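May I ask for a single protein's sequence together with how it folds?
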Amino acid sequence: MNKQIQLQSTVTCPECGQQSNATMPTDSCQFFWECPNCGELLRAQKGDCCVFCSYGDSPCPPVQKEQSCC
């Protein structure tokens, strides 16, 4: 049985605390994400492949699939 892949993630801005829902790409990493509240440009933290793995409540689809990401 295949596990359901989450395509939505709630990203929390570490600068202002704003939480925003975002749709994650299924075939690539998203290295940058701009907070819609304060404009802070988030970058993936060291050791993470994308902003969703760093700041989201769900890791990116490739990581969920247990595949290599980027």
